[in-house]
Amino acid sequence: MVNYNADSAMGILFPNSYDSLVPELVSERLMASIPFASRYRLIDFMLSSMVNCGIDNISVIVKRNYHSLMDHLGAGREWDLTRKNGGLNIIPPFAQKTVNIYNGRVEAIASILDYLNRQKEKYVIMADTNVAVNFDFTAFLQKHIDSGADITIAYTKEEVPKAFIDIDMTKKDLYYTLDINEDDKVQKIIVNNKDKGEQNMSMNIYVMERKLLLDQIREAYVNGLTYFERDIVSPQLDKLNVRAYQHTGYYARILDVKSYFAENMKLLKEENVNALFSPSTIYTKIRDDNPTRYATGSHAKNAMVADGCVIEGEVENSVLFRGVKIGKGAKVRNCVLMQDTVIETGATVEYTITDKNVTVSSYKELKGTESFPVFVEKRKTV
Amino acid sequence: MAKEMIAMLLAGGQGSRLYTLTQKLAKPAVPFGGKYRIIDFPLSNCVNSGIDTVGILTQYQPLVLNEYIGNGQPWDLDRLHGGVHVLPPYQQASGSDWYKGTANAIYQNINFIERYDPKYVIILSGDQICKQDYSDFLKFHKEKGAEFSVAVMEVPWEEASRFGLMVSDENDKITEFQEKPKEPKSNLASMGIYIFNWDILKKYLIEDEKDPESENDFGNNIIPNLLRDKRQMYAYRFDGYWKDVGTISSLWEANMEVLDPENSGINIFDDNWHIYSRNSGMTGHRVGEEAELDNCMITDGCSIEGKVKHSILFAGVKVEKGAEIEDAVIMGGSVIKEGAKVKHCIIAENVVIEKDAVVGVMPEGDEKGVATVGSGVVVGEGAIVGPKAMVSEDVKGGDKVW
Questions:
Q1: Contact A298 B283 (CB under 8 A)
Q2: Taking a contact as any Cβ pair under 8 Å apart, which residues of chain A between 279 and 338 contact chain B?
Q3: How far is CA A9 from the centre of its chain?
Q4: How far is it, in rounded angstroms, from Cα B243 to Cα A226?
Q5: Quick check: A306 and A38 in contact, CB under 8 A?
Q6: Which of A189, A201, B185, B250 has the fewest C-beta atoms lying within 10 Å of its C-beta?
Q7: β-bridge mates for residue B330, sequence order
Q8: A272 backbone dihedrals φ, ψ, rounded to 5°
Q9: Are A175 and A21 contacting, i.e. CB atoms less than 8 angstroms apart?
Q10: Are A345 and A363 a contacting pair, CB within 8 Å?
Q11: Which residue in chain A is spatially nearest to B281 when comparing CA positions?
């Protein structure tokens, strides 16, 4: 076969990971389908990165609130994942009396063991979807193979984000930092590290042989273990060769509403847009919007605007998703306005995030602050 | 499975009056209105009217068009039975021929049409900007018990002699056809959109092919023959927006009319009549700190730092600081560098207008030339392209082209 690669990998995405950190944004969706960067959903980044690196067999293990994601992904055509073999495979919980909706990756993967067993790819790459990144899975996989590792974990060097430090432990969303030696070998995995200063933050992107994953999950499931990192990898660091791979490129990690707002705002800088959207294209669902129209008397400055908008008022320092309408005399500053938001005549909106189909009525004022942006729920009229 | 009506779209036109814009692509593939190509209009009309089988007859420079149409998915025309098919001339047992005329193009594809066993065939033209519900047209055709119907537009009497005219009675029955007559008897201009009963069309195509004198053209041969035989022929009046964008100035004008949907009648922002197109897949456009936007349309992937007034920018256009754009149509991927002035013109795809270059000027008095820069051209630093100039090759820095 042309282009056949014996070292091929399949992908597994966990679209519900870290849902509980952004309750406002996921009231009717999940992490993966949160709109981001004017016309994308968070999952577009991982999905496109994988596709662009030749991974064309991707399973998305969904847990709850997945209607919006299924609507977004469809048959996977926009990502070129409508394939006879492999392609996109969305796996909802298999409703059985005896099986509860899974907690943690072990149960999630255990629910597709048979499927996993039947696949042909030698490697499996697993990732969460709360990071918008143009990730080089080719280099990642190559490093894994060259280093002879059993498992490779991608990480970034950064301080532990404040949202993680403040995390409510009862919500069980764990994050991991890595102690690594000069050979990039992982010495220790620290759960919910509160240390100050630069840490090796795990991106929760893993690669390993499919067979090893199968064996580990079978054993862990029998022993009632929950978390892949805490319960499988961490205790076996002496047995397994676990390596780390540093991602040095651009990424946007969504941890709470504040970081969601800030990461959108960062994309108003051209160098950040260029960094996130290169080298390869990020694909998303097509909506067939017309071009955006700026009427006479409109003012726009420092904004990222998708197709399908009609701007009659003023826009500054804002990210506008598809189909947003800004009426005459309306002022929009420092806002993230999701799909089909309507800001009516004369309204003033500052430091605000509006979810889909929100309407801000004429001459209303809505003002948040940089540290506490106002959030307006889906379909609400203010 | 028989189809009620299928569409045959004539897309072989060279569009020679668009000159440099159609050097490398067929007229129906010419970009229009920010993110469309001309052919998106008839294709979207088909889908919105419930027609799911379309044959596209290509001949001249089909590469861009073929790739653009692909499997027809953007128009929802990737169907198990039917869908969109690109039909170039092909070799047959009896030899091979280019499409000699519009009627011959359909004649050579009789087999294609027969596969769907349609009752009616609508003949469309791939070089018009028009939003039309063909199901209304078909309803009219059936109600009149017609064998042939033609969509017509009322045109001003003083311009009537530029068109093919249908003379009809009070019942809209066609009694006479005048091709660009000196003394028009009617002001109903043919839009080149026909509905035929397939059995009638087939009969006349075969007959026409046997006539060695024939030009194999609908207007010149088929319609006169139908009249001769006193067939049931009706004129369907259409009063929406319709524009043949066959010349640089009409193409420019139609683009400008898109900017003024309230008055021009061409509204591409209509949620009930989507115009579909193959999308660029680029990220949302960027408006910089010093950008000034006034009455314009901007598409995904653009980056604007300069001034843009009353213009249409296609996907991925870059406008650098201090650049000024007015009354311009700028197609995908073009770059307007610092300090350049681009006015009253059409800039094709992937053009670079270097620093401080000037293309076109705003018209004064009766001067109405539209400057045109062909695709991939580089207009050098400080170069000047005059108001009526047509540029197909690179212009060196500092040069003047009039």
A1: no
A2: 281-284, 286, 288, 290-307, 310-311, 315, 319-321
A3: 20
A4: 65
A5: yes
A6: B185
A7: B313, B347
A8: -70, -40
A9: no
A10: yes
A11: A283
Q: Give the count of beta carbons closer than 10 Å to the beta carbon of residue A99.
A: 12
CB B107 within 8 A of CB B55: no
Per the listing, tokens 């022993």 go with A223
pLDDT tens digit sequence for B348-394: 999 999 999 999 988 777 667 899 999 999 999 999 999 889 999 99
The residue whose two tokens read 């019942």 is B171
Query: Closest by alpha carbon to B294, among A295, A151, A334, A196?
Result: A295
Q: Are B9 and B42 in contact (CB under 8 A)?
A: yes
SS3 B255: helix
Q: How many Å apart are CA A122 and CA A72, to the nearest integer?
A: 29
**Who contacts B217 (Cβ-Cβ below 8 Å, separation ≥6)?**
B101, B102, B103
Report yes or no: A330 and A347 within 8 Å, Cβ to Cβ.
yes
Nearest to B242 by CA among B82, B358, B124, B351: B124
Q: Residue A73: helix, strand or coil by DSSP?
A: helix
DSSP, collapsed to helix, strand or coil, labels residue B362 as: coil
Residue-wise pLDDT for B213-270, tens only, equals 999 999 899 999 999 999 999 999 999 999 888 889 999 999 999 999 888 888 888 8
The size of chain A, in residues, is 382
Q: State how far residue A307 is from chain B, nearest Cα, in angstroms.
A: 6
d(CA B218, CA B281): 40
Which pTM does this prediction carry?
A: 0.90
Round to whole Å and give the CA distance between A129 and A203.
Answer: 10
Q: Greatest CA span in chain B, whole angstroms?
A: 69
Shortest CA distance to B42 belongs to which of B243, B250, B217?
B243
Beta-bridged to residue B373, according to DSSP, are B347, B391
Task: Measure the CA–CA gap between A29 and A19, rounded to whole angstroms.
Answer: 9
Task: Identify all chain B residues contacting A294, using CB atoms and an 8 Å cutoff.
Answer: 293-298
For chain A, helix, strand, coil in percent to 5 are: 25, 30, 45
Q: What contacts A187, CB < 8 A, 6 or more positions away?
A: A179, A180, A181, A237
Q: Which of B253, B251, B273, B269 is nearest to B261 (CA)?
A: B269
Contact A194, A210 (CB under 8 A): no
Residue that is written with structure tokens 């577009």 in the block: A44
Residue of A41, A265, A284, A294 for testing the chain B interface, max B β-carbons within 10 Å: A294
> How far is residue B39's CA from residue B30's CA, in Å, rounded to a whole number?
8
Q: Are B89 and B96 in contact (CB under 8 A)?
A: yes
Q: Read out DSSP for A85-151?
A: SSEEEEE----BTTBPPP-HHHHHHHTTHHHHHH---SEEEEEESSEEE---HHHHHHHHHHHT-SE
C-beta of residue B292 within 8 angstroms of C-beta of residue B276: no
Which residue of chain A has the CA closest to B306? A301
Cα–Cα distance list, B257 to B129, B261, B264, B265, B356 (Å): 11, 7, 5, 8, 29
Rounded distance, CA A209 to CA B229, Å? 77
Q: Sign (positive/negative) of CA torsion A185, A186, A188, A194?
A: positive
The first and second tokens of residue A248, run together, are: 């040095």
| Residue B275: pLDDT over 90 | yes
The DSSP symbol for B146 reads: -
User: Residues A294-340: pLDDT tens digits?
Assistant: 999 999 999 999 999 999 999 999 999 999 999 999 999 999 999 99
Mutation site, A287, A293, A342, interface B, largest B CB count within 10 A: A293
